[in-house]
Amino acid sequence: MKFYNIIIKYRFWLSLILIAGGVALNMTGTGFWPTFPIYFVALIGLLSHFFIGPLRLIQEPMESGNIEEVERILNGIWFPNLLYKPVRSTYYTIKGNLAMMKQDFDSAEKHLKKSTELGSPMPEAEGANKLQLGMMAMQKGDLKQGENYIRAAIRAGIPDKESEAVAYLTMCQIFMNKREFRAAKDFFRKAKACKPTTKQVVDQIKEVEKYISRVPG
Question: How far apart are the first and last CA of the chain?
């Protein structure tokens, strides 16, 4: 595994070394076909560097919480638009999440929108992206756009029950503001059914429960 990661990390430069080695052999009189495997391996290395990128290297620093290393790896991708479409979508998702952590909401929105437009290889990741976009729209006071994104997130599927509960609670609050109380109560029941355990979400459910039982519908 470590060896494979080293190959991914340095494959661009290793490919150039192979090409230089192939050229040197040709200059000594070695024919093209004996050196063809060298050029072929170098070509695969260059193509995978630009079209697949080093995203596989992100897993370990992500799990250990080494955000600086994650950013360093992402910044090492010279031409993101050359990445294979599902890989490019993942790239923008990670960039968006990092921007969210820094509370750079404009950059986060830009990156997450790019990821959503490309389509995620995993529907759950697409749902998570749309939920984040919905929450950002809500923070900006754009309730209509927020509702559209959150509905789309629920349809796509949200990867964890905590986030799913947040999505339903947000929809509940939207419909409370619209005075569509029956729909609001339905979303509230769905939020409770997720059985979230995060204190912030649990407290929010308790707060909503205090007044939702008193509204008609």
Answer: 58
Are the C-beta atoms of residues 174 and 147 closer than 8 Å to each other?
Answer: yes
Q: Which amino acid is at 74?
A: L
Helices (H), 52-180: 59-64, 67-75, 85-101, 105-118, 123-139, 143-156, 161-177
**Total-model pTM:** 0.77
Percent helix, strand and coil across the chain, each rounded to 5? 80, 0, 20
Would you state the torsion angle of the CA atoms of residues 203, 205, 179, 134, taken in this order, to the nearest 10 degrees?
Answer: 80
Residue 64: pLDDT band by 50, 70, 90 thresholds? confident
Cβ(126)–Cβ(120) under 8 Å? yes
